[in-house]
């Protein structure tokens, strides 16, 4: 425990971090005692605890070893800062529909994503309603915003005139791509193109992740006293203040326009998330703080996952040129010469949908999914006969599904049109789509808390993929291999410095 703390904080030990280290070391005994007590709780109900060191893919090997020993029963995994119970795939049906007072996804998000700073996991009923209802209902409007912005987004992130092979860094380019496109839907022009706004929203997501990597060692009761000493938390709060200020200006301008032109001229039907969020408040006049919270929730939920998904998609296109011409042919056949995706044509891009789902299958965002904290005082009763005590984090391992030879022949192979072929079978036409969830796909979660933003994400990924496929040739740098994913705890990240080469082409 002490070694983990020092390795985390000792690399950049300024005065602020020195104070943080002192608090962290003071809490180490608390954490050590807590871990021993929790391990005892699990042993008492017949669940083995596997320890892991969070470096050099150690957690990946530990997770695999534990699963090989216990493929059909739960086991616990001790990682720095937390201890979780990994459930077998058979328990998806058990957990998928349980309410918050029995299994809580919000408590997990609050703990995992520093809810006291990021708002993740906090009470936000209006935001939840907007995501589950307005966003899904207005996906065609969101799609139009993406299509309208994709040319500009490409120009400022990649460039639109690359006559020769040009190296780009997909992770950095796709982070800005996702921010610009999402911003067009979330807040609209001109704020979505404001460089300070873009930098703040991209940086906010990164700061949350970096802050958690350090604060995960600190017991929750001590975090409010320790967190202000970390540069990542100070940066996060500064970005939040900038976003609040700019959002306040935008809201005042919108109110003036609404007063002047009336509701019809206010832009409420323009497909921007702020308008839908505003409509969820019974007062009709949410505060700037409330809408900032909602905006940051949308930002964190979308930018982090979209950046990773778009980056993997670029790696896959550059690594598998054998599929690109067939994708181009589908785009031409379905979209015609203008190449515009709309609510009708997107449903017919089956090969593109299959490509995107295959990319996600082999490169999900996490080794586990369906995260929940047991909130029922009686614990969580499993079909295996085990009862998980209240307070524990439970998850389902995703890889046994994603790499199941029973579900997917040659599961390690990237087969871009695997799912489009499945949909050619009678009765399967509407199944195994990118946004479909089920016991065979938990990469978007499953059940009552399946990701409501998956339709938003899928639409954006397809717009970006279609634009790149039509307008660029892509390849790996000669002599280089396909970038491999990186691991941080249970999370899976695309290589942040890997590069590929692009060259403009005429559609």
From TrEMBL:
The keyword DNA-binding does not apply. It holds the Pfam family p450. Signal peptide: none annotated. The chain crosses the membrane at residues 15-34. The keyword Iron applies. Its cofactor is heme. One of its GO terms (molecular function) is heme binding. Its main location: membrane. It is found in: Membrane. Heme binds at residue 451. Coiled coil: none annotated. It is a single-pass membrane protein. Belongs to the cytochrome P450 family. This is Cytochrome P450.
């Amino acid at each position: 425990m002490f070694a983990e703390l020092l390795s985390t904080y000792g690399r950049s030990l300024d005065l602020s971090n020195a104070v943080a280290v002192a608090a962290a070391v003071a809490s180490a005994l608390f954490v050590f005692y807590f871990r021993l007590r929790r391990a005892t709780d699990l042993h008492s109900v017949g669940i083995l605890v596997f320890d892991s060191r969070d470096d050099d893919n150690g957690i990946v090997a530990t997770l695999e070893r534990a699963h090989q020993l216990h493929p059909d029963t739960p086991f616990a995994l001790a990682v720095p800062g937390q201890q979780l119970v990994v459930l077998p795939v058979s328990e998806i049906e058990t957990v998928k529909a349980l309410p918050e007072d029995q299994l809580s996804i919000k408590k997990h998000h609050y703990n995992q994503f520093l809810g006291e700073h990021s708002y993740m996991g906090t009470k936000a009923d209006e935001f939840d309603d907007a995501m589950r209802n307005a966003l899904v209902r207005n996906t065609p409007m969101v799609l139009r915003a993406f299509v309208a912005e994709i040319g500009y987004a490409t120009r400022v992130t990649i460039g639109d005139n690359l006559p020769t092979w040009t190296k780009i860094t997909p992770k950095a380019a796709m982070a800005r791509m996702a921010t610009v496109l999402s911003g067009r839907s979330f807040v609209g022009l001109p704020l979505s193109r404001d460089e300070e706004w873009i930098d703040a929203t991209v940086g906010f997501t990164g700061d949350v992740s970096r802050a958690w990597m350090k604060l995960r060692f600190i017991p929750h009761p001590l975090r409010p006293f320790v967190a202000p000493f970390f540069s990542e938390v100070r940066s996060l709060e500064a970005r939040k203040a900038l976003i609040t200020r700019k959002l306040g200006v935008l809201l005042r301008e919108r109110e003036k326009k609404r007063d002047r032109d009336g509701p019809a001229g206010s832009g409420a039907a323009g497909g921007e998330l702020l308008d839908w969020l505003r409509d969820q408040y019974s007062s009709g006049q949410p505060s700037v703080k409330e809408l900032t919270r909602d905006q940051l929730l949308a930002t964190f939920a979308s930018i982090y996952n979209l950046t990773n998904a778009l980056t993997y998609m670029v790696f896959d296109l550059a690594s598998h040129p054998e599929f690109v011409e067939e994708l181009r042919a589908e785009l031409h056949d379905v979209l015609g010469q203008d190449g515009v995706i709309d609510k009708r044509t997107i449903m017919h891009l089956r090969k593109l949908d299959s490509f995107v789902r295959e990319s996600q299958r082999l490169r999900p965002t996490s080794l586990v999914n369906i995260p929940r904290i047991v909130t029922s005082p009686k614990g969580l009763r499993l079909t295996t006969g085990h009862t998980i005590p209240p307070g524990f984090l439970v998850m389902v391992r995703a890889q046994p599904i994603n790499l199941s030879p029973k579900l997917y022949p040659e599961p390690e192979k990237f087969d871009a049109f695997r799912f489009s072929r499945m949909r050619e079978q009678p009765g399967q036409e509407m199944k195994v789509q990118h946004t479909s969830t089920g016991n065979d796909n938990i990469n978007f979660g499953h059940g009552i808390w399946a990701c409501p933003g998956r339709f938003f994400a899928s639409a954006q990924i397809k717009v970006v993929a279609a634009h790149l496929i039509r307008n660029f040739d892509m390849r790996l740098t000669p002599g280089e291999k396909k970038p491999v994913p990186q691991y941080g705890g249970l999370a899976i990240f695309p290589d942040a410095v890997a590069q590929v080469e692009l060259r403009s082409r005429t559609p």
